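Quick note —
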Amino acid sequence: MAVETEREGWPFSYVDRIRFGDLDAMRHLNNVAFLGFFESARIAFIQSLVASHSPVEAEHKVGLIFAEAHINYRSPGLFDEEVRTFIRPRALKRSSFRTEFLMTSDTDGRTLAEGWGALVGYDYVADKSTPISEPIAEALRASGGEAEPEL
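Predicted structure written out below.
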């Protein structure tokens, strides 16, 4: 079976491997670990858009925080399986945006999970949300992020 490494409408994918520590008592990918795989892919996606963006640099007083997640689990992930997470931006607003994800097995192509996460621009000094920086917003628009009006 040919495994899909690119997918139309998904500008980015990230590959990771299921480690023994990612498994639950039933010997498949723990439901909490799915979020970690999504987080790694999401950070790599943002860094691919804006190379200067770093989620860990102390001098960054403004960044992005993960505010909400929704995951539909479709199939168990197995030990030592390579997982490909496709990412695309959606619902771009002044201070937030969503990233949709689709996690598949590079072993046989089956869908492991799909969903989305909401990220919010955050000012760590003022301890409140802030508009997304223009370089990130511009890069998200160029990658398919569509503006969504604020309610």
